Amino acid sequence: MKKLLFISILAGxxxxxxxxxxxFDGKPDVYFQYASQPRQSFNxxxxxxxxxxxxxxxxxxxxSVLVVPIKVSGLVMDYDRPYLIKxxxxxxxxxxxxxxxxxxxxxxxAGKISDTxxxxxxxxxxxxxxxxNIYLELHPNENFGVGLEKKLASANKYVSTIRHRVMVDxxxxxxxxxIDGYLGVFSRKKLYLMSEQLDIPIDKLNTTVSxxxxxxxxxxxxxxxxxxxxxxxxxxxxxxxxxxxGSAVQ
Length: 250
What we know:
about 15% helix, Immunoglobulin-like, about 250 residues, four-stranded antiparallel sheet, disordered N terminus, 2 domains, alpha+beta
């Protein structure tokens, strides 16, 4: 921490003499910018975690690059200053399997007070049923301390400024506006097929849609399934049963 040494007035012989003031007795601190400056998409809420899901991405989408901004306190310097960042051993994601840190080094460049860590998240089959965590941690070194350990985000709630959790998965949950009566039993395969045939975003049913729209989706898809069956192409769910829409559109 940067300390301000206050004037000390000595008694006796040195009475009335003042010592010089020293400012910033210590190293500047390095911290995750998300915990200090809010992201617009989070409605100005300070955060120390990021959630990434591949669930609503197309099957061709194999990885994603997450941008993690780093910032330092103190003054701008005219030389490069390396900082230290590591993935904590408690991370359930494995380097080289679930993620890869693209940066070759971590440095606050001359004339700068910030840097960016690029984290490549890899989409693998395990993520269909399991979430994985990466705990990125900043550590002190010869250039920076980590004294800004936490920051008050809201009443009685603090966020870490030196530890950032990244959670990644490919788990597709039943959309908010999925109505069983029209769409039938939810399945990932059915939702992807609907997106393809109806030409709608995969996350369409997580946005505001009317009952009439959902009814139309169900009728359209059941007609498509019936046509495919007539052509000898019976579309099945992953469990081997015939794919059908809801009872209200049969």
